[in-house]
Specification:
By secondary structure, the protein is an alpha/beta fold. The chain has ten helices and ten strands. Strands 1-2-3-4-7-8-9-10 form an eight-stranded parallel β-barrel, surrounded by five helices. Strands 5-6 form a two-stranded antiparallel sheet. Helix 2 runs parallel beside helix 3.
Length: 297
């Protein structure tokens, strides 16, 4: 049984670009399902733009799939949607976006009078899940064609133009570390990442309930658990992760390590092949997801 295996790659904040190329080469050899590229903690200005890094590496390793990690903070929705769609077109349907819940951006804040009536002033990030929900609707709507939206946080009218994605639209990933409403995540995202593998309950009951409440089918949303991992005892770790995934009805795993280039390459070589990662011509097919219906408006 193959599993979705996503590997984290922090570039700029963690690895240099030359080291990232070395990691991507090994990832290509061992057949990871996707690489999730981040550029630092959510909300902080990036040292290197994750979409640019993914575009550079994608040209060198055309068989890999890419998930760009980006927060709402500092990213206007139309701009981010365009960058990810451009990457998706360049890689022939092998791209997605891990949208992180954050704050606003300079472009949007300059034209909107926020907060709007009905929404309290954001203290301690309380409004971030609501911002994520609106942002996700705008982005998926732009990927589907055209948006005419005026909401609490964003005002967007228009389209991105050009050909559509070869996978219907880029994949959207929601991260449980952002304290999102699970029903909102199930309604809008293609992938939901549980923050720690230890938090997965017996089976995927909570996700099933969220999917049913959202009006979607379970097979339209992939459930992935984030697992911190080191390269030592890779054979034992891989076996434990595989059994855990089956026992808890997970679709896959996101492997994260706090080590540098050597640690990451060690995990790729010792753990990933034993998990039998899934693959496909597009990121959506590699994740076992159907071509999506148009996003809800």
């Amino acid at each position: 049984m193959s599993l979705v295996v996503i590997v984290d790659l922090a570039v700029g904040d963690g690895l240099g670009l030359d080291q990232a190329r070395e990691v991507a080469e090994v990832a290509s050899d061992v057949g990871v399902t996707a690489i999730r590229v981040s550029d630092g903690p959510p909300g902080e200005l990036a040292l290197l733009d994750a979409s640019s890094v993914a575009g550079h590496l994608g040209a060198l390793y055309p068989g890999l799939h890419w998930i760009v990690d980006a927060p709402t903070t500092h990213n206007a929705p139309a701009n981010l949607a365009r960058r990810v769609l451009s990457l998706d077109r360049a890689t022939h349907g092998r791209a997605g976006l891990a949208l992180r819940a954050g704050d606003g951006d300079e472009v949007t804040d300059a034209v909107l009078d926020l907060p709007k009536p009905g929404l309290p002033v954001d203290t301690g990030g309380a409004a971030r899940p609501f911002r994520w929900k609106e942002y996700a609707r705008v982005v998926t709507g732009l990927w589907d064609g055209e948006v005419d939206h005026e909401g609490r946080f964003y005002r967007v009218n228009g389209s991105l133009g050009g050909p559509v994605s070869e996978q219907g639209r880029p994949v959207l990933l929601a991260d449980g570390r952002d304290h999102l409403d699970w029903v909102d995540a199930a309604r809008l995202a293609d992938v939901f990442v549980v923050p720690r593998i230890e938090l997965v309950d017996g089976g995927n009951t909570r996700l099933i309930d969220a999917v049913v409440s959202s009006g979607r089918r379970r097979d339209e949303v992939a459930l992935v658990a984030r697992a911190g991992i080191v390269r030592e005892n890779g054979r034992v770790t891989a076996g434990e992760l595989a059994r855990w995934s089956v026992n808890h009805a997970l679709d896959g795993l996101e492997l994260a390590t706090t080590g540098g280039r050597d640690e990451l390459i060690g995990v790729l070589r010792s753990v990933v092949p034993r998990l039998e990662p899934s693959g496909g011509d597009t990121l959506r097919s590699a994740l076992g997801l159907p071509v999506p219906a148009p996003a809800p408006v």
